[in-house]
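Today's session is about reading a structure prediction critically. Students often jump straight to the picture, but the first step is always the sequence itself: look for stretches that repeat, for charged clusters, for runs of hydrophobic residues. Only then move on to the predicted structure, which in these notes is written as discrete structure tokens rather than atom positions. Here is the chain we will use throughout the hour.
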Amino acid sequence: MQYPSIVTGTFRSRPNRFIALVDIDGVEQVCHVKNTGRCRELLLPGSKVILAQASNPARKTKYDLIAVYKGDLLINMDSQAPNAAVGEWLQEGGLFALPQNHDGQLGSCLHTLRPETKYGNSRFDFYLESDTCRMFLEVKGVTLEEDGVLLFPDAPTERGVKHLRELIAVTKEGYRAGVLFVLQMEQARLFTPNRQMHPEFAQALQEAADAGVLVLAMNCHVTPDSMTLWHPVPVL
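Below is the predicted structure for this chain, in token form.
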């Protein structure tokens, strides 16, 4: 996925979870933050940030904060980017090229792809049909990094636990189900659930895997104006 117009700036402060004060060419601008998570380890005063120009010129905030440099590592922190990148990856047949599809059970040809699909009382990020399976897929963006290890969540998420329970439920009705952790950076060695932050989520993820839910993690090729899914990363 590509951003049409970007600028660089210097992060100053974050008065609340929706906005940030950023220095752009010596002028302080109020910018929309496209991630309501804490991101405390990323948004540090003086950090170099990437901003996308808002498509609506009448909007009060002219820019969206979409990425930040953590040292030399560029991390996309746009919470909408994972779903956009996954949608492109699915359309290109990326799911079928995974090592997890060595037996072809996920199929080799995509027939149907629907975002934001409701099933019963649940709503999933994607529903897809291939030549061999029908599948619901949940997407989780991950930005919390410690020495190349990516962790999710960065705060307790009852909503995340609920999604995993719903994926388990659809497997019992004959569907395939998967959860894809999108690691929004390049230098990711492995992914692990954040057991210290939210042990209930880690337990639910293990129960989902035991029930046959496909658990995937993919790092991304990240540039200042783009993010695309890149390589599968081990899940620990």
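Discussion point for the tutorial: The chain has a mean pLDDT of 96.
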